[in-house]
Amino acid sequence: MLRIVSLCLIAMLGGGPAPASTAADPPPRNGEALIRQMHDRYEGKWYRTLTFIQKTTLPNGTVETWYEALTAPGLLRIDVAPLDSMNTLIFRNDSIYDFRGGNLDRSAPVVHPLLVLGFDVYLQPVAETLRKLRGLKFDLSKLHETTWQGRPTYVVGAAAGDSTSPQFWIDKERLYFVRSLEPSQKNPATMLDTRFEKYRRMGDGWLELEVVFLAGGEVKMREEYIEPRIGMELDAALYDTRKWTPPTWIGRAAASGAD
Question: Hey, what CATH class is 2-15+27-256 in?
Answer without folding.
Answer: mainly beta
